[in-house]
Design brief:
The complex is a heterodimer of chains A (301) and B (262). Helices cover 76% and strands 1% of the residues of chain A. Chain A is built from 13 helices and two strands. In chain A, helix 4 runs antiparallel to helix 5 and helix 7 runs antiparallel to helix 10. Chain A is globular, with a radius of gyration of 20 Å. In chain B, the strands form three sheets. Chain B has a six-stranded mixed beta sheet, sandwiched between helices. Chain B has a four-stranded antiparallel beta sheet with strand order 2-1-4-5. In chain B, helix 4 crosses helix 5. Classes of the chains: A mainly alpha (301), B alpha/beta (262).
């Protein structure tokens, strides 16, 4: 499926065009969609637990806007080139994501790093980054502005194995760390006071989760741009089936997030075929109705 | 005998606010005793308890557990020694009773451990049996009544297997029967499990029933500390609560009655 119909039979028979499309275009794209969906869903889950807030997602703390600012800045400067096999735009957005998180944590630290302060600092940093992005867009010519807007829609269009190899360690490593922290995250479901009285070092836990999520999301945004709402939708859907125990919920988000974004990407490539919709636009379009569904149906329990 | 918990010159005020909420307090909690902290609203009972559990870092003074300063103990090491049942708990807990109690084992688990060990499940079983809520094991905490919820959180603190148990207003919101059951449970803990208990309560009769010693806290300072019969005196209580009490003696422990009128 996709813009160019390729059947599994063609690939297996060794049809050269089909084989090339399958191995060189489709497979890395599916792999990246799985990685991105998994990373977004797992970090969304840990943010929702950490902040005890159903609306927290990987982008709440300005990680995405920080990344976008990095990308927009490099697009504005038109510094083409590559470093360590990654385009400069990607590296700039990776650095932006890490920088924004570091700033949020630094600001939140002044008040012993309580989650409320972190959340407020995150929103402040996020708004500041958005304002700077608007400013940079205003300064740019229309070609540059178009490229900036296109980047911020998020998508998995130009993907090879390089991107897959580059993001895989971040995502898999991040998921491993969050799985190791599952006792701590489960305890947070009982509230911070009880978690602390059971022996959880709250400040260290927050630092770890934020650090891991920033690296994971930074790497993903660098390759695929900001793809919204996946980190919000997938954990909410899976909680209904798997329950709240992070031992099961985290792996479920890993698999479910991957599957979800792969399907979204498939739909985004197919709906407007032969043109394709950036997958970030599709997930954003799904996000609104999902919120309403959460509000109307999800309030029963 | 060295006290289980030694408190010297303990004081606390909010950061950036010089007004002292607590202290200076000197206090020894003896092994195996039940110490009941009484005092009016805002007298610093909860603040004292949060300092005793290490959740609140004192502005001044020192706390020692078996001679070891709190400053040298990690949060996890503290949790293996001291369990806390706070007064305020989250309104929604999306876990079953068994899961909540199992989380009491956290300070004994290592991060790399994939599943709880046999001894962890044994501790959970023992805690559920001691509190008498084995039949609630699989029930979601959100579906429980107030009394059952309280019992579940106490069981979780028991599964922590710490020697010292600190409870903040455990009978608040409980009806008479559940109050009695809780009092019996705490007496059992004292007698059978040999636990040391510190409890803050507004209920003077519960304090009289449970406490080996009573600590009267007034404006963050120790007004008096001693046996129930020493503390439950009309003059002392009037000074503490600014209202009149009648004390009925004759039973094993004194009973206080609130007096109305001038």
């Amino acid at each position: 499926m996709g813009s160019q119909p390729v059947s599994l039979g063609d690939v297996l028979r060794g049809d050269p065009t089909a084989t090339a499309i399958f191995w060189q275009l489709r497979l890395p794209r599916v792999l990246l969609a799985m990685l991105a969906g998994a990373g977004l869903a797992v970090s969304g889950l840990s943010f929702q637990t950490l902040f005890r807030n159903e609306l927290a997602e990987p982008y709440t703390l300005g990680i995405a806007t920080g990344a976008a600012l990095g990308a927009v800045l490099s697009l504005r400067l038109e510094e083409a080139g590559a470093l360590l096999g990654m385009p400069l735009v990607s590296l700039a957005s990776f650095v932006g994501a890490i920088g924004a998180t570091a700033l949020v944590v630094g600001l939140g630290w002044r008040r012993q790093g309580s989650t409320a302060t972190l959340l407020l600092a995150g929103i402040a940093v996020s708004l500041s980054c958005s304002a700077l992005i608007l400013f940079l867009q205003y300064l740019s010519d229309s070609t540059q502005t178009f490229r900036m807007v296109r980047w911020m829609m998020g998508g998995l269009a130009v993907v090879g194995y390089g991107e897959v190899l580059w993001t895989a360690p971040w995502v898999l490593g991040g998921v491993a760390v969050l799985l190791a922290l599952r006792w701590d995250l489960n305890l947070l479901l009982l509230g911070e006071e009880l978690a602390a009285s059971r022996g959880v070092d709250l400040v260290r836990l927050r630092l770890r989760v934020l650090g891991v999520a920033a690296l994971m999301i930074g790497a993903l945004v660098a390759v695929a741009g900001p793809i919204g709402f996946v980190g919000l939708m997938v954990p909410h859907m899976l909680r209904r089936f798997v329950g709240h125990d992070h031992l099961f919920l985290a792996p479920a988000c890993l698999l479910g997030g991957g599957a979800f974004l792969t399907l979204c990407d498939l739909a985004a490539r197919t709906i407007m075929s032969p043109a394709e919709l950036p997958v970030g636009v599709l997930t954003a379009l799904l996000g609104g109705p999902f919120f309403l569904w959460l509000l109307v149906l999800g309030r029963r329990d | 005998m060295t006290p289980l918990l030694a408190v010297r010159g303990l004081a606390w005020h909010p950061p950036g606010d010089r007004r002292q909420v607590l202290g200076p307090v000197d206090l020894d909690v003896l092994r195996g005793e039940c110490l009941a902290v009484v005092g009016p609203n805002g007298s610093g009972k909860t603040t004292l308890l949060r300092c005793l559990t290490g959740l609140l870092r004192p502005s001044a003074g020192e706390l020692r557990y078996e001679g070891r300063s709190f400053a040298t103990l990690t949060r996890r090491e503290l949790a293996r020694r001291i369990a806390y049942v706070p007064q305020i708990r989250p309104s929604r807990v999306p876990l079953s009773v068994e899961e909540v109690v199992l989380l009491g084992r956290y300070p004994h688990l290592s991060t790399l451990q994939l599943a709880p060990r046999k001894e962890d499940f044994a501790a959970v079983d023992a805690a559920l049996a001691l509190v008498g809520i084995e039949d609630l094991r699989r029930r979601p905490v959100d579906e429980l009544s107030g009394g059952e919820r309280q019992a579940a959180f106490i069981a979780a603190a028991l599964a922590q297997e710490s020697e010292l148990l600190v409870l903040d207003e455990p009978t608040i919101h409980l009806d008479a029967r559940h109050q009695r059951e809780l009092a019996e449970l705490l007496l059992r803990l004292d007698a059978e499990a040999g636990r040391t208990v510190v409890i803050a309560t507004h209920d003077l009769n519960l304090a009289s029933l449970l406490g080996d010693r009573l600590l009267a806290l007034s404006s963050g300072q120790v007004l008096a500390c001693g046996a129930p019969s020493q503390i439950l005196e009309p003059e002392l209580l009037e000074q503490l609560f600014r209202t009149k009490f009648e004390i009925v003696r004759g039973g094993e422990r004194p009973v206080t009655l609130l007096q109305l009128g001038p």
